[in-house]
Every structure is written in C-alpha cells, then in structure tokens.
Write a structure and sequence with these properties.
The complex is a heterodimer of chains A (about 80) and B (about 140). Chain A contains 2 helices and 5 strands. Chain A is α+β, with helices and mostly antiparallel strands and about 80 residues long. In chain A, a hairpin with a 2-residue loop joins strand 3 and strand 4. The longest helix of chain A has 11 residues. Chain A is globular. Chain B is of the alpha+beta class and about 140 residues long. Chain B has one domain: Molybdopterin biosynthesis MoaE subunit (Aldehyde Oxidoreductase, domain 3). The chains are: A alpha+beta (about 80), B alpha+beta (about 140).
Chain lengths: ~80, ~140
C-alpha cells in the first residue's frame, strides 16, 4: 500500500479570517501549483488575495515539488513594527 | 529569541545589553509604541494583535541581524518584537545598536528597522475602541 503524502498548510494575517482556520492538512498534492489549485477550489475567496508562499520557512518563487511532511505557509504582505 | 509574548521592559533589556566595555561610543535605541490612532470619527485603536509565523520570523530576524553586522562596522545589536495583544503605549518593537561611531550605528539601525518591518512574517490586527478589528 502506498502511504499518502501529507502537507501541512498554514494561513496567516487576514488569510486566516478568509479561510476561517489557521491550518489544514492536504493529502497527495504534487507541487505548489497543484496545492494552489486545491486551495482555490476549497477556499474560492483566496483567489483575489495577494500572498507569497513559504516552503519549510523559505519563500519560494517557483512551483516546487512537495514531499511528505512539508510545511507550506501562505504569507500575505507583512506589517510588523 | 527575538519574539516575545510578555510586555517589553526596556530597563531590563538595557541592563543586560553589551555596550562594548568602553569601545563603543554610540548606542542607539529605537522603540516602536502602539499609537491610539483615530481610525474614523470617535473610533480609536485600543490595542494591536501581532500575529507571526514564529519559526520563520525567528530565522528571518536572525538573518537580518547577521546581515547588519556584515554590512556595517557595528558591535552589538538587540532586536525584540512582541507577539500577541499589545496595548496602546506599550512597546511593540525594539532595536538597539552599539558601535564605535554614530554614523554606522544610524545606518545600521535604519537597515534593521526597515528589513524587519518589510520582510519578517509578522502581521497586525488593530482592535478598535468600538470592538471592530482591522488587519493592517
């Protein structure tokens, strides 16, 4: 039996309110593009939002492949200070 | 740890800060304090909720500290940022830079402040006096 691949997806700032949760676990997602499609289907309101994507605490700019236990965070424009 | 959940006590921070035992002539302290801005008529900010992606924020601030020390001839840097609810007049963010001379100290502290505010995954939600909340 093939073990399913689990990806932890975290939401921050206003995105938390939009999706109504801090995090979800997504299964069997191939890469970041695939994950975005999955999230836009699940949370259509995310489509109009501006955010970067962090994979295991690093911002990424291309659609990287995902592996079991990866942590992906959706990062809206930051506003510290 | 750069992120702190408890109220920031500046005196305590200064007591434990390394001022360079005589080699640093310049010590610059920046604090950011939550303002009670009037958002609309009669409605003020009463507190701010700072939300952070904590493991990533810690890593990003560590990178900024390292970069500041590489870019500028400074000796020691202290950076603290609150997370959670911070009331008006409380400190949300502190940077201290200690260096032999002030010019590089001012450049370095400006760099650290801009980088932290522009790059570190921290977000703020204003809690208003009428109970409404607004992500900034």
């Amino acid at each position: 039996m093939i073990e399913s691949k689990k990806i932890r997806v975290l939401f921050f700032g206003r995105l938390k309110d939009i999706v109504g949760t801090n995090e979800i676990v997504a299964s069997d997602i191939k890469d970041i593009e695939d994950l975005k499609k999955y999230l836009f289907d699940k949370f259509p309101k995310l489509k109009g939002e501006i955010f970067s994507v962090a994979l295991n605490y690093e911002i990424i700019y291309t659609s990287e492949n995902l592996k079991d236990n990866d942590e992906v965070a959706l990062i809206p424009p930051v506003a510290g200070g | 740890m750069y992120l702190v959940k408890e109220k920031i006590n500046l005196e305590e921070l200064l007591k434990n800060f390394d001022f360079g035992s005589g080699k640093n002539g310049s010590n610059i302290i920046f604090t950011e304090i939550v303002r009670s801005d009037e958002i609309k008529k009669g409605v003020f900010v009463s507190k701010i909720l700072y939300d952070a992606y904590e493991p990533m924020a810690e890593k990003e601030i560590a990178k900024i500290e390292k970069e500041a020390k590489e870019k500028f001839p400074i000796d020691s840097v202290l950076i603290k940022h609150r997370v959670g609810y911070v009331d008006v007049e409380e400190i949300s963010f502190v940077v201290i830079v200690s260096s032999p001379h002030r010019e590089e100290g001012f450049k370095a502290i400006q760099f650290v402040i801009d980088e932290v505010k522009g790059k570190v995954p921290i977000w703020k939600k204003e809690i208003l006096s009428n109970g409404e909340t607004v992500w900034v």
